[in-house]
Amino acid sequence: MVTGSGRGKPLRNIEIDSRDAVTNKVLKNAGVVPAWISQKKEITSDIAAVRADIVQQTIPKDEAMGRLEVINAKVRAFNMSVPVHTQQMVPLQLAAEWAKSTK
């Protein structure tokens, strides 16, 4: 349990040196987003679109498979570029996606 004057305050990250902190602040203020974050947003959007098409049954199974293969290629590339392993994504499987839509 933490007691004293530091209680309730965020911990300082002493490993980030001042150059990185300044660089990160400048990039953030300029609205620059790291490529892996943009990739994740694109992949998430693609997944939502294909899932919606599967649920609404507006897409044949072979076309869904093709779209999932494209998404999975993006996921594999994303997983190689993401700096934090906890942010990696799991490739999609057609059978699992199709099963979700029939429930």
Explained architecture:
With 103 residues, the protein is an all-alpha fold. The chain has a domain at 59-103. The protein has 4 helices and no strands. The longest helix is centred in the middle third of the chain and has 21 residues, at 35-55. The termini are far apart. The mean pLDDT is 84.
Q: Write down the overall geometry.
A: elongated
Structure annotation, total helices: 4
Helix/strand order, N-terminal first: HHHH
Strand content: under 5%
Largest sheet: none
CA radius of gyration is 20 Å
Number of strands: 0
The pLDDT mean sits at 84
Instruction: Detail the poorly predicted runs.
Output: none
Structural class: mainly alpha
Into which percent range does the helicity of residues fall?
55-70%
Distance between the termini: 47 Å
Oligomerization state of this entry? single chain
Features:
4 helices; 103 residues; mainly alpha
Question: What topology emerges from the helices and strands here?
Answer:
Layout: H1 18-29, H2 35-55, H3 61-81, H4 94-101
Short description:
The chain is an all-alpha fold and 103 residues long. The chain has four helices and no strands. It has a domain at 59-103.
